[in-house]
Design goal:
Layout (H helix, E strand, L loop, with lengths): L3 H15 L4 E6 L22 E5 L2 E6 L2 E6 L4 E6 L15 E7 L4 E6 L7 E5 L6 H4 L12 H11 L4 H6 L9 H11 L12 H22 L4 H10 L19 E4 L4 E4 L1 H4 L8 H7 L1
Helix pairs in contact: 1-6, 1-7, 5-6
Length: 288
Amino acid sequence: MPELPEVEALALDLGGRLQGRAVTKVHLAQFSALKTFDPPLTALEGVLVDGVTRHGKFLDIDLSGTHLVMHLARAGWVRWRDEVPATPPKPSPRSTIAARIVLDDETGLDVTEAGTRKSLAMYVVRDPLDVPGIASLGPDPLTDDFTRERLGEILQAEGRKQLKGVLRHQGTIAGIGNAYSDEILHAARMSPYKPASSLDDDELTVLYDALRETLGAAVDRSRGLAASELKGEKKTHLAVHGRTGEACPVCGDVVREVSFADSSLQYCPTCQTGGKPLADRRMSKLLK
């Protein structure tokens, strides 16, 4: 799933490509992806792109005051086309194309989603805050006003909730998903199950620094990359997420996993849990 660093870089890449160009046509291939009806999709046609920005994990293309907002969900992406095919994409359960945006110089982009779970969402709105997911976002963790003290207030308000869940809840902190919450906690050497309100002052400082440095470094590495390079860049620099069974790059212990119904987390026992593996009830049941 694209998270804050990838969406930030995607916004920068697309902003450079789209700025000042006019949209001539928007083809909707997966009708379930469009979540709004007013303004209509045709309101995007014939107008100039003023810029591309990010709100948490939402991508926002500003077309002369009307906004095309996209949440790429787990398997969505945006693919640039130097030349758009003459034939519009057709609705098909086998196609990965959800929408195609055609520009006035015959370049454009495809909004795609792999897999069978269709969670990608597109909104045409006059104000980004008209998108419920944006209106309910927590603070952005890379802004200047996201201070150590602000993080401390958030964690105290979340009480005994587990750090992993607090970090990735978009209404609490915007932009951090499953992958970077694993990476932040590994960098901070903290258990994903540690209660949010249990951190002392030193631990709060460690977590805050790990959060800012992990996300900031990912944004810096991604800045200037084309959209086609961003997924590979992210995967290359992950320490534990998606690396179950591999050696931890810090201590050499085996990276472990805890599985849930529709997701999983990865961690290093030596670095994060005092050498003790976390209980994985799902895997335990499979082994019985």
